[in-house]
Amino acid sequence: MDENYDPVRPCIIWMDRRADKECDYIRDKFDTNRLFEITGNGVDPYFGYSKILWIKNNEPENWKRIKLFLPPHSYVIYKMTSEISMDYTSAGNLGGIYDLMNNSWSKELMEEMGIPEYMMPGNLSLPDEIVGSVTVDASVRLGVPKGTLVCAGCIDCLASTLAVGAIKSGQHVAVIGTSINWGSVPFK
Description:
By secondary structure, the chain is of the alpha+beta class. It has helices at 20-29, 32-39, 48-58, 60-65, 72-81, 88-94, 107-113, 136-142, 156-163, and strands spanning 86-87, 98-99, 104-105, 124-125, 130-133, 149-151, 172-176, 180-184. The strands form four sheets. A two-stranded parallel ribbon has the order 1-4. The model has no long low-confidence stretch (mean pLDDT 93).
């Protein structure tokens, strides 16, 4: 989003593999064990941080205009509530810049990658946390009552995992849709 909170460019979806060179660069220049230690993620074009680096490296005019990165559902929440937020699952899904243990952006990794911290929302929320309410304008456009509470939400695979009841240590779930994801609830 730009300084007026309008989209700068179309979203790059998860299955887009254009950030291969950025991933090669990360593998060559960074300690990937340290990256995994902080984020719990590896290096792959799937992750949002590699796509952010692709924009930085390949679209310098767009990069200059970007004030904030938001995933699509957080943008919808912004349009409905005028509130900027991102849920922890989406932050974690960005991959290599989210500190999993501290539930915050990794200043260390963002600095190393040249991604300014101001480009990430400061308000990170639990998926069920109320992050705003429907504005008058959104109420008129959507036919949703003004003041309806809106929660942060989460990425689809985690919502699916919860929906099938995989909540106990050691349970597994296959989430099948456009792709196939396998998830397991960690052992305690």
